[in-house]
Amino acid sequence: MTSLPQVAPRIAKLTALSIGVALLATACGGSSTPTSTGSASAAAAGIACPTPSATGSATTAAGAGGSVPASATTTPTPLKIGSLLPTTGSLAFLGPPEIAGVNLGIKEINDAGGVLGKPVEVIHRDSGDTKTDIATQSTTALLGQGVSAIVGAASSGVSKTVINQITGAGVIQFSPANTSPDFTAWDDKGLYWRTAPSDVLQGKVLGNYMATCGAQTVGMIVLNDAYGTGLAKNVKAAFEAAGGKVVAEELFNEGDSQFSSQVDKVIAAKPDAIALITFDQAKSIVPLMTGKGIKPIQMFLVDGNMSDYSKDFQAGTLKGAQGTIPGTFAKDDFKKKLLTIDPALKDYSYAGESYDAVNLISLAAEAAKSTKGTDIAAQLKAVSESGEKCNTFPSCVTLLRNGKDIDYDGQSGPVSFSEAGDPTEAFIGIYEFQDDNKYTPAKEEFGKL
């Protein structure tokens, strides 16, 4: 990480997060007086984030071994799961790891004998983005093929266009990546679930983290949709609760291709740090900012734009920039398994959440002794809490078939659902970009909602 001068501690200004986020690394200092700078480079001198700790190399427990007992109940209708994940559009970079996570889960389940005596079937369809009607068409096709559950969409905005269509058909919608708080209170008949935590958590972690890095003023460039504005609201609330001030907040719409106006207005406010709450529009916004003197250490990205930019920018463009992704770090053994499914993988965002979604749906079907969507949904909360802990389909289904209650903890971290289908606790990973414009794990923060 770039060597920067240390500045006086300002931890006293930080307030405790109401969701109980525990900082896992020692917070560093920041300026004890407001930053008064006339240039972006001067502002950058006030940013000094906590030193990243070595992480990301741990392995995941394999779970109970041994053979899996046969199911005492067999189903005449095999469990059929659809995926509604992006292969086109502004979140297409998230599609490969999510699809790989789904396929790995399906493979392991079927290698263990499937669900209720039958192999699980999977059907993949593209979700596109909110500029197209691809998601509606794909959903219609999946429902027409008799799926019991649909894993997706990645985009909260896309999910809003199909959630009523899916849940209205008595089918589970299980998103690995939706983070909009709006879904918590959605009238979904108990059929909408997610393994990604609400942006109430990611927003508070990011806002608080920018404060620990010494920023006293922040500017934001925000996608004007359910994801962007919801996340920005929570980032702002947390940052200001920590004693900082948001001095500029510029919106843009999906489909926009020009961002000079937003960039110029944010830079004119002379913020210490800039939060980019976007999708792949970051490919256009980052060069505009660096061209006007913004240093990468001033940039804080989010899950919607955390990607491999090695082919998009010159080396060093993002060196020192940081960003957040909900979920725990993908562990080395899990990455190796994913690469056997898709050897071309470069990112692992939401792969664990997708894998966990498939496992939870399958385990709930076993617990319900049914492949009907409403029956499966009625068991999802039960298999996520208050039983014997397990973390693979074979180990968990063995316990179920032996009459035990289970508590599935997955690749995305501990999974315990609220009545609304939201995770009640989760990790948020903080990552740092290196000279090759790829990001590496820095630290994790854990919170309860």
Tell me what the structure shows.
The chain is α/β, with parallel strands linked by helices and 449 residues long. The chain folds into two domains: 11-57 and 199-326 and 428-448, Rossmann fold, CATH 3.40.50.2300; 80-197 and 330-417, Response regulator (Rossmann fold, 3-Layer(aba) Sandwich). Helix content is 31%, strand content 18%. Strand 15 and strand 16 form a beta hairpin. Helix 10 (351-368) packs parallel to helix 12 (393-401). The longest helix has 18 residues, at 351-368. The chain starts with 21 loop residues before the first strand and ends with a strand. The model is unreliable at 1-43 and 54-65 (pLDDT under 50).
Q: Outline of this structure?
A:
The chain is α/β, with parallel strands linked by helices and about 450 residues long. It has helices at about 40-45, 95-110, 135-145, 155-170, 200-210, 225-240, 260-270, 280-290, 330-340, 350-370, 375-380, 395-400, and strands at about 20-25, 80-85, 120-125, 150, 170-175, 190-195, 215-225, 245-250, 275, 300, 320-325, 390, 405-410, 415, 425-435, 440-449.
